[in-house]
Amino acid sequence: MIGLVIVSHSAQLAEGVRELVEQVVQGGAAIAVAGGTDIPDAPIGTDPAKVAAAIESLLIRPEVSDVLVLMDLGSAIMSAEAAFDLLPEAMRSRVHLCEAPLVEGALAAAVRAKIGGSLAEVYAEARDALAPKIEQLASWQHLLPAAVPLAEAAPEQADRESVELTIVVPNQLGLHARPAARLVTLVAQYDARVTLTHDGRTVPATSLNRLVTLGVRQHDVLVVRASGPDASAVIEAIEALALDNFGDPIEVTEPTEIIAAAVSEEGDVVVGAPASEGVAVGPAFHLRAPAIELEEGVVADTAAERQRLREAVAAVMEQLRTLRAETTRRVGAAEAGIFDAQMLMIGDRDLLDAAEEAIELRRLDAASAWNLALRAVVARYRALDDPYLARRAEDVLDAGQRVLRHLAGVPADALLFDPPEPAILVATDLRPSDVARLPAGRVLGIITAEGGVTGHGAILARSLGIPAVTGVGAAALTIADGQIVGLDGGAGHVWLAPDAQTIEQLRQRRERWLTERSESRKRAQAPARLRSGETIEVAANINLPGELETALLNGAEGVGLFRTEFLYFEREAPPSEEEQLEIYRDAARRLDGRPLVIRTLDVGGDKPLPYLRQPHEPNPFLGQRGLRYCLDHPGLFRPQMRAILRAAADYPVRVMFPMVSRWEELVMVDALIDEICAELQAEGLPFDEDLQRGVMIETPSAVLIADHLARLVDFFSIGTNDLAQYIMAADRDNAAVASLVSAYQPAVLRAIRETVEAGRAAGIKVSLCGEMAGDPKATALLIGLGIDALSMSPAAIPLVKERIRRLDMAEAKRIAALTLEMSSAEEIEAYLSDVEQTELAAKRMESEP
Length: 849
Ligand code: PEP
Ligand code: MG
Hints:
The protein is of the alpha/beta class. Strand 1, helix 1 (11-25) and strand 2 form a beta-alpha-beta unit.
């Protein structure tokens, strides 16, 4: 028989429902109740442990096959969900949460259960329990006061006036987090009440968590209903979004997951994505967030506690926004989409309401209340049939735990990796900041469950030279701390349980790899001299000082671009002058006489800084970005300029300004530097009065007035990433126009040529530090165009240096001249690839005996 559990905020109400039901069915129903809490000061509320106990009390009865849980509202739903998590695994499949109205549903279900109804029958009976009431009261609707808006007075009637749309969901992976996030974001722009119905369950379209946990799969039918002033408009927009596959590509809907889905096992080997080459073998160790101790306590000032929670959620939203911007910039908009989804997940009104209700009714502290609400949502995700959607539970949990960390005062980016001996790091996924903070020398390799080769951590793992395999799927998470595992980052292979012979083979391969790498790095220490004798300076782009070591090992002849904005991210306030001075001096010291080009803060655009409270800009890439922002905010800019000027007193430090589009901007910088120099002089602090200055050429305007700019600076550095976006009028973070934002576009190449000519005429050095600099396919072209120095991701240095050494200036010029005659990026890239392949073939032939 089917048992019933009644969950209510009030112990009396729960008992009352039981009494009523037993009275009607006259014995023979299996009912248990979980009402109220056991907290004397706060008896109204619900308690997952009580709910779990009530469920268990029924399930241990031999005649009870399944249990239907009915609950009143708000946190009762959460507690029922959280109770699910507390039950023994074996019981969970016999527990079913039912959205039926509590009193009517319990009565109807009990009657059906008593006569031996199946689970489906009892469930359906409970769910339809309101129908007789609706029918009976229909004749009273004409008496509703005319002034009462229909939607509020009688939802059923309002729904009758609603606009409806039926969608057959086209997305390959169903309505997963990203398409659902797009839908929620779209709906929020309209003045309409929108609900979605799937398989008999209806949820508001404003709640991402409820929407995703509907478990909508490809080809499922979804009914959208909208009412309110914008009903028709929102339906039209939703239809257009659905026709556009909810914004997902048709074939590949989720890059990381597709990679995870492609994981296969070949014998003892699990195959993931080859994220960073190299071989490693050794004990595994998981990267963990520090555990947060929750001490449930009764609070007196519930309003203050609710405020604390709201502030914590708001702070985490900012963290996620920053991470999104950082990831978009470093990896791509598609990869960054997950942060949008996480923002909607934790910004979900439903979740916050549930937590606030727990604060108010149960007098829980903010962290315990949030934890309770979060666990309920996570349980809802985990209970989904679809393994793909069920994994989104980790995304909610991850974002939700940030709120707990914030409330506990634990730094946002605190992650622990502290193995007793050097180990292979295992994680779900890696953020750039995780990799950058890894203890040097203690990480033999990296294995992640999620992420692709362009994943967040993969790029940094490569630049740090740590072998890594990403997107290994759930297999990664089954690895225990201390278990010996092996990996080949070049092939994307992971050995979960290598036998003694395999371990030995992997050890030998690692030795060979280390020797080969150290030889290639040794070769990279020598200057990059062309066959015709000219030398090209090859430097590194770094985002955090932690990347310096690999840069030097890889043969960097200095740092050509230090993106200082990374020093400003993930904190509550900008770094002080002294803090910056220390960082710049330390970096310069480690460079041991090699030049360090510090780029001043380049925020705005895709890199907002939460604490700067920059006003919203409709087109941030065309707004207050880089030097424009700094000049308008001397309070932020001065400490950085002072720190740079002071660091340059003892080391070959240079400064470089981003996003310059006018000559006057450099004039203003000069005036500011003069002022600061006078200040430093008066304070008796040493500084470099001849600080070398450079300008990034990354706007079309800067190219066109390069001759004027050249008079004010000592060098140019071409930022092809931005230059391509501004010349091509195509957002560098918009995947839809990705092919336009290519440095190989003929217009961009002409801009490079113009810049080089202006630099030459003025007798100043012209460097290039966009991603293009690290692409060996571009090397001949750039040298042929007359570039003096290249600055790139540290990992690219050995290869680019080898490419330079095989070149001859006359040949490079010929390649550049030919390229400049071509009319499309496609043709140019194909030609340069051919040149590179021919070169590689020649090299192979030379090295063969
Ligand atoms: C560029 O725009 O090419 C550049 C190097 O700067 P960033 O990528 O940091 O904008
Ligand atoms: Mg730039």
